[in-house]
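Researcher: Here's the sequence for the chain we discussed earlier.
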Amino acid sequence: MNLRVLAFCWKMDKSALLALLYFRSVTQRGFSPPFAAYLLAMKAQTLNIHIINARGFLDHLAMRGLVPAPLSSALECVKAPSLLPQSALTHAQVRKFLGSIRTVTPEGFRNRAMIELLYSSGLRAAELLGLDVGDIDFDQATAIVTGKGSKQRVVPIGRTALRCLENYLKAVRPFMTRNPSETALFLNKQGVRLHYNAFCQIVTDCAHGTGLGVAHITAHTFRRSCATELLRGGANMYHVKDLLGHESLNTLKHYAKLTIIDLKKTHGKCHPREKDSCGET
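Model: Thanks. This is the structure I predict for it:
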C-alpha cells in the first residue's frame, strides 16, 4: 500500500486507516505487522469506535466498487474486558494522601481543597477545574457542576471539603487573584483558571510523597474511590449514579462487584455453617 495514502489517512482519520489496513490484511490472507501493532495499542472502547467508523468507510468504498460488499460486516467489534476498578483507594489511603499534602503555601492549600472536593463529591477533573466561585453554595453545602455534554447537576459537598473550600476562598484565593473579574474557583500562579494538564501533574507530584505504594494514582482515582466507598457503605445506586452524573446504572456495574475482602466478611457473617461451633459435625 502506498505510504502517502497511509500517512494521509492517519492525518485525516484513524478509522479510515484502520479500514485500509484491514482490507490489506484480508487480501493478503493475514494480519500485517503494522495492523496488529495498531490494534494492540488501543483500548477496547477506543478500538470499537474506530471499527464502527471503519465499517461506514468500507461501505462507502464498496458502493464505489473498490472493495467487496461483505467486507464491512466481517469487521466485528471487540468485547471490552469486565474489570474491577483497580485504582480505587480505601478511605484510610485517601486520608493518608490528603494528610501528606503540604499546606504551607497558597498552592499547597489550593491543592488540598481541590482533592478534598474531588473525593467528597466524586467529580471529574474537568468538572472540578470548570467550577466558578459562584457555583459553590456554602449555605446549602452544594455545587453546580457542568459535566459531559454541558449537562449541569447539583452535587453535595461534605463538611471537611466545604471547610477547606471556605478557608481557601477567604484566606488563599484573594492572594492568587490578578484580575478581580476572574470567576474561576481554582487559580494557577498567573491568577487564571488552572489547566487540566497542570492539575494532573499536581496529583502525580502529591502521589510521589505519600508512601502509599500504589502504582498509579490519577485525578480519576478519587472519583472511583468516592463511588466505591459510597456503595460499600450501603448507598443507593441511583443516588450514586446521580452524584457521578451518569445516565445509566450500567456504568456502576464494576463498582457493585464485591471485592474478595467484602465477600469473605459477608460469608462469615451470613453463612449458617459459619455460625456453628468450631469442630461441630
